Amino acid sequence: MSNASNAIARPSISAPAFERVIAFAILAMIGMGLLTWDYLSAGPNSPPLKWILPGAQFVVLAGLALVRKVPLRATIGAYTGGLLVNATVYFALWYDSLNYNGGGANIGRGILALAAILLLPIPMLIGGFIGWLVPTGRKIVSSETKAATSNGVMM
Questions:
Q1: Residue 126: what pLDDT?
Q2: How far apart are the first and last CA of the chain?
Q3: SS3 14
């Protein structure tokens, strides 16, 4: 086999695969949606840092979908683990707003939101590890196995 045909058969190192670009676009849109939703729901007196906390880590994590050395299923698992924590926190905030009966500040709600943001890497790591363990269904076949099965002889 000549070098010219061998160079064509090799996958490109610089260009990410099509499924990685699609995954990046979907994950980035979810992260930007979180950012936009929190920005629009924040009050005028809320600190500017609060506007970027719920979605910024998801936009950054979406960038991992373009890295070939990181399995795509691990990135999606980490994203899912982080979204589950954010969904739990926002559900607690929504449920508390339904049952609010007046009174002072709800310190427990603030501590819950702060703890979720500070401890978010833990469920992301767990989700990424679980995603890394999930099989993709693709079978990796060596050249020796291909040669043995093409001759009709299985060792």
A1: 92
A2: 27
A3: coil
Q: What's the chain's length in residues?
A: 155
Is residue 25 in some structural domain? yes
CA distance 36 to 61: 17
Has residue 45 been placed in a domain?
Answer: yes
Residue with token string 């002072």: 104
CA-nearest of 119, 110, 118, 108 to 46 is 110
* Three-class DSSP category at 154: coil
Span 83-109, mean pLDDT?
78
CB atoms near residue 77 (< 10 Å): 22
Q: What are the pLDDT digits (tens) for 123-132?
A: 888 998 998 8
Into how many domains does the chain fold?
Answer: 1
Could you list the residue range(s) of the whole structural domain that residue 22 is in?
Answer: 15-134
Neighbours of 30 (CB within 10 A): 16
Is 4 within the bounds of a domain? no
Query: CB within 8 A of 64, min separation 6: which ones?
Result: 70, 75, 78
Which of these, 78, 83, 89, lies nearest to 127 by C-alpha position?
78
Does residue 11 register a pLDDT over 60? no
The DSSP letter of residue 66 is G
* Inside any domain, residue 102: yes
